[in-house]
Amino acid sequence: MVNFSLEGKVALVTGAAYGIGFAMAQALAEAGAQIAFNCRKQEHLDKALADYAALGIPAKGYLCDVTKEDEVKAMVADIEKSLGIIDILVNNAGIIKRIPMAEMDVEDFRQVVDIDLTAPFIVAKAVIPSMIKKGHGKIINICSMMSELGRETVSAYAAAKGGLKMLTRNIASEYGKYNIQCNGIGPGYIATPQTAPLREIQSDGSRHPFDSFIIAKTPAARWGSPEDLMGPAVFLASDASNFVNGHILYVDGGILAYIGKQP
Ligand code: NAP
Ligand code: GCO
Question: What are the per-10-residue average pLDDT scores of the chain (263 residues)?
Fold first, then answer.
């Protein structure tokens, strides 16, 4: 029988206070995993702990900035002491800044790359040694449509998510021999706080132009929800995907397959 169970497994989902990370952590918990998560803001942590508890999930939460290697190492050490070696890492924490490239401050560019690309390197580096000792591991990097496509104002994000696709493939290449599988999930356009500005109702009550654009560009003719990422996360975290390595699983309603509706 195909094994989707995560019983006995320890999962760290970064940035899982809400949004896509929260939904994936909930799914991993429902499949049997013990959950650890982190974020930067106390108010996000407090609310997330209450939200997990309301679902019956005894998640362990940490205030940890994934760009700070010392904070990450301390969090991983505490998880290993209290829950056990991390079997599953989901590098989910991420930000976006929508600014035309030639107008973007280099510090803004660096911050996006730091969180969206360098931090997945830092966290993966912190968990791989114990995964090697344990004889298995699952690393899931949350990529994006922008791992494949560009668009106006998201140059830093696209550069980071394109790099994350290749970091995913490189971890798969380097650590596959230790029974560590590293894959990516590439969500399409998902209704979360990160994309809320793209879905704002206009002053005349109409949909945001980008909202209408995405609906037209998506064969499923809808925005995704964080729940759409739950099954793919469990699949890539489970033994059911032990021969899947270096793959980016796009969960996009078909956007990447579709040239778009004739105007
Ligand atoms: P979101 O709603 O903005 O949530 C981002 C989460 O990351 C928050 O919990 C935030 O909490 C945390 N975070 C941000 N920077 C952090 C840092 N330096 N250290 C620790 N935690 C940090 O984002 P989302 O829409 O759920 O997206 C989650 C992931 O999916 C991101 O990597 C995003 O790029 C990717 N993605 C999103 C979409 C989409 O359409 N929504 C599509 C494709 C890919 P704090 O602010 O408290 O730190
Ligand atoms: C944007 C959006 C996208 C989504 C996602 C698509 O401004 O284009 O925020 O980047 O977040 O990454 O897969």
Answer: 94 98 98 98 98 98 98 98 98 98 98 98 98 98 98 98 99 98 98 94 94 94 97 98 98 96 80
d(CA 168, CA 236): 13
Q: Is 74 helix (H, G, I), strand (E, B) or coil?
A: helix
Parallel, antiparallel or unpaired: strands 34-39 and 10-14: parallel
Protein residue with least CA distance to atom 18, ligand 1: 65
| CA 262 to ligand 1 centroid distance, Å | 33
Measuring from atom 23 of ligand 1, which residue has the nearest CA? 194
- Look at residue 75 in the predicted model and tell me its pLDDT: 98
Amino acid identity for residue 101 in this structure? M
For 72, other C-beta atoms within 10 Å of its C-beta total 23
Distance 62 CA to ligand 2 centre (A): 26
Q: What is the pLDDT of residue 259?
A: 92
- The pLDDT, as a whole number, for residue 49 is 98
Task: Ligand 2, residue 157: give the atom nearest the CA.
Answer: 10
The verdict on whether 178 is a catalytic residue reads no
Ligand 1 centroid distance, CA of 79 (Å): 21
- Which residues, including other chains, have CB under 8 Å from residue 144's CB and lie 6 or more apart? 157, 158, 161, 186, 187
Predicted local confidence at residue 106, as pLDDT: 98
pLDDT at 2: 82
Q: Which of 18, 52, 62, 157 is catalytic?
A: 157
CA torsion sign for 66, 71, 72, 78 is negative
Q: Which ligand is located closest to the Cα atom of residue 158?
A: 2
Token pair for 101: 């490239």
Q: What is the pTM of this model?
A: 0.98
Q: How far apart are CA 229 and CA 20, in angstroms?
A: 7
